[in-house]
Structure formats: structure tokens, C-alpha cells
Amino acid sequence: MTSFLRRFSRNHGAMLGMVIFLGVVFCAATASLFYEESPWSMVASPLVAPFTDASLPFGTDMLGRDLAAGLLYGARMSLLVGVVSTVVALLLGIAVGAAAGYCGGRVDDLLMRLTEFFQTIPQLAMAVVIVAIFSPSVTTIVGAIALVSWPPVARLVRAEFLTLRQREFVQAAVVIGQRPLRIIATQILPNALSPIIVTASFMVATAILTESSLSFLGLGDRNMMSWGFMIGASRTMLREAWWMSVWPGVAILLTVLAINLIGEGLNDALNPQLRKRGQ
Questions:
Q1: Cβ neighbours of 166 (radius 10 Å)
Q2: CATH 3.20.20.10 corresponds to the domain 2-32+66-270
Q3: pLDDT tens for each residue of 46-74
């Protein structure tokens, strides 16, 4: 762990991404402390320009809602959907990939054909259909994003299992009579975690973008503020009130950029034999 942290800290981009990401997490965690009122509440005159009122640093929208409150509460929605949907997708992808890679044969063929079927459908289009059918809510959004995100994880885990199941320590576990589930959980999976962790970091960023796209299209949870909703609601006011779409757009940009930088740092730290870019 010490050597991992040392390698990770040497990546300045990853450290910058970590600082930004922790800032987003702090904003999401303390949103109710800074803004006790609902982000849907009308607190001032409509279309107050940013930096003209100290109590409204980012201005207001066309209904007089505080954009700063919307940004902080929107961070909760983005992080919640991004993290939870990634965890669900990882569990599903690891289960499918592990079964396919360890069992092989017909089980492998069946599971990979199922995986390929999901990969042939555009992710955003499939997520839109699922959310539209089951009505927009946090649960359906998380489920839809997880359902379209697991195939790459399954293929990655399958490839790792196909490589590792031939190693001596796995064969030794088979010889001494360990059950397949125990071999998978204690012998193979721990040695395949590095690429899975790196992939998971990028999946969080993709999930945040997908949730923002769904909210922009009007398929977000109407009870929770979202950055995508803020951009979608302001698309008719681009000329009159540019700040309504710029601030949530910058929030999405910084969050996704930070997670991608962290992912690259994890890749370098978990694969020290790889040369850093530019060397």
C-alpha cells in the first residue's frame, strides 16, 4: 500500500484530479448546511447575473432559483448515480465474466453471446428506453445505467480469468480440492482486481455523463436537482442568461475530468512497469 500511494502521488495530474473530486464530494456532503432551503425554492428575482449579489454568487435562473444551491445539490445526484450504478455494473460484470472465464465451453459461449447482444445496442439509447418505460426515478436511472455498463467489465474479467486459471497457484488449489467458488473468490479474483479498479474509475465518469444526458432529455428524477436538468432547463435562455447553462456544464466537466485523471493515476500506480506518457 505504501508503494502504491507513493507511485500514485508522483502523478501530478492524478493528485489534481483527487483534489477536485474531493471538493465535489465535500460540496455534495455539505449542501444542506450551506443551503437549508430546497434548490427548487424561488429565493430572489429571476435572472440575477452572477457576482452581482454576494448572497447569490452564481446568479439565479428564470424562476429565481439559486444556481449555487442547484450546483451543490446536483453534485449529490451525480455522485450517487455514478457510484451506485458502477457498483451494480461491476457486480454483474464480474459475475458474468468470472463464470465465463472459469467454466469455459458452452457456458462461456452462452454468456459471451449475451454480452455481445448488449454491446450491439447503443448505451444511451438503451438507457433512454429503459428509463422511459419504467418512469424516471433514481432507482430506474441507476438500473438503466448499470444494465448498459456491465458488458465491458464482463469481457475484461473473462480475459483475466482465462489467463489466470492456468497459473500454478490455481492448479494447486484445484488439486487440494478447493471448490470453484472459493478458487474464484480467493485465488483468481484478487489477482484480477487491478484492471477492474482502473475500469471502475472510468465507469463512474461515464455514468455521470449518462445521467446528465438523461436529465437533459427530461428523463431525470423530478424530485432531485441534477446538473443535466439545469442545462436542459436553460437551453432556451442561452443568449439571455448564459450562466444558467455554463455553471452546471463546468461542474460536469471538472468532475468527469477529475475522475479520468484519477483513473490514469490508478493505472500508473497499479501497473508500475508502464512508462509514463512523455517518457
A1: 9
A2: no
A3: 999 999 998 999 999 999 999 999 999 99
